[in-house]
Amino acid sequence: MRARYYVNPVVPRVPTASMADIAFLLIIFFMLTTSFSPERTSVQLPESQIRTEVSKDAAIVAITQDGAIKFTDGERPSFALSEAQLGQVTREILEFIPGKEFVIKADRSVRYESVDKVLEQLRLNGAKRIGLLTDREAGGGVQ
Questions:
Q1: What pLDDT, in 10s, does the model give residues 75-91?
Q2: Distance CA 81, CA 51 (A)
Q3: How many whole angstroms from its chain centre is CA 69?
Q4: Is the CB of residue 47 less than 8 Å from the CB of residue 135?
Q5: Are 118 and 85 in contact (CB under 8 A)?
Q6: Confidence of residue 131 (pLDDT cuts 50, 70, 90)
Q7: What does residue 15 show for φ and ψ, rounded to 5 degrees?
Q8: Residue 142 pLDDT > 50, yes or no?
Q9: What is the pLDDT of residue 139?
Q10: Number of other CB atoms surrounding residue 55 within 10 Å
């Protein structure tokens, strides 16, 4: 009698024991290397020679070329609003954080009247620390 040999075919498999570890390492890597900026309105900033540091949690009021106003409190993504709404939001923020800093990020081609109206709304509603975001004159670094 002849001996029969059965050959078990080798089934290719991907080892999944360390996949969870790799996934968590990737998540941690992306969390540490991703920078978060709540205000991403693209504007061409005016130039300036003076440089002062702005706190990272400052509220940002962006004015686009067409005069639209976008606002962020420094923690959440920006959203569009009107001048009257800007005043109301400013009051609400200053009730909870009296020394909150506000930064105006206006395109260099925006009419001064638009910037003046935003400044006036901030001032009338209690903002005391107001700055203008500019570009460094000699090299182009954002202030």
A1: 788 888 888 888 888 88
A2: 29
A3: 15
A4: yes
A5: no
A6: confident
A7: -70, 125
A8: no
A9: 47
A10: 13
